[in-house]
Amino acid sequence: MLVNVKDMMIKARDGKYAVGQFNINNLEWTKAILLTAEENKSPVILGVSEGAAKYMCGFKTVAAMVSAMIEDLGITVPVALHLDHGSYEGAKKAMEAGFSSIMFDGSHYAIEENIAKTKEIIDLCAAKGLSVEAEVGAIGGEEDGVVGNGEVADPAECKTIADLGVDILAAGIGNIHGKYPSNWAGLRFDVLEAINNATVGMPLVLHGGTGIPDEMVQKAISLGVCKINVNTECQLSFQEATRAYIEAGKDREGKGFDPRKLLAPGGEAIKAKVKEKMDLFGSIGKA
Ligand code: 13P
Predict the structure, then answer these.
(1) Which residues of the chain are under the pLDDT cut of 50?
(2) What pTM does this model have?
(3) Phi and psi of 91, rounded to 5°?
(4) CA distance 287 to 76
């Protein structure tokens, strides 16, 4: 059964560790992440962006696949199915389809509109027992080939959004989606500390988990980060393992063309990456 993230976030905050949100793209991804969580007795959050949901045929297909997989694989650890960077309309659709947790990303709106829309989403989620993640100060990333140093959120705005009644808060602290540029300045721990102080007790979310050095991840956890999103790193692991399989000519040996064989090394690579992250985040054995 799917759960919202409320309980797992409170435990992570009090136990000073973080739960990973791993984004899913298909059945192989989902299976690899769920099995790794179960094998390591770790709570887990499956992230689904609107684009990934569309690719997988829609929110209903995703919710049905994940729920059925939890049952068929006998998964006992807490699993949340979380909409990643949802729009206002997308959030409503994911709620109806059976997602257990919703991120409404209103960070691109002026703060007044972000507040108004976040409030509406909170009320809708409350009626269904779902958890809500909001965002202040967009997370940086590549746009038209230009990579920035990542946006930085205003701690006072974070407090305003936190006080609306969200369960978890994503705040820009110089983090970026995708690979970090070689001249990246690093996470803004001064800002993270100010946000943590302003929002007392609010579990914070670190997006753009790919490529953040381990020491920075650990320091972020010590300053209130309870959820860390990882997407690109799993994609790169899958890509490298699949490339190695094909470059070694294994797809041309025997029945190596069978998708169950062809996609297996990629699946194993995702499992190894997810385990590595769960270990770093401290969530192993916490389910
Ligand atoms: P990465 O792709 O950089 O790991 O970021 C994932 C993320 O933050 C999803 O919201």
Answers:
(1) 143-145
(2) 0.95
(3) -60, -45
(4) 9
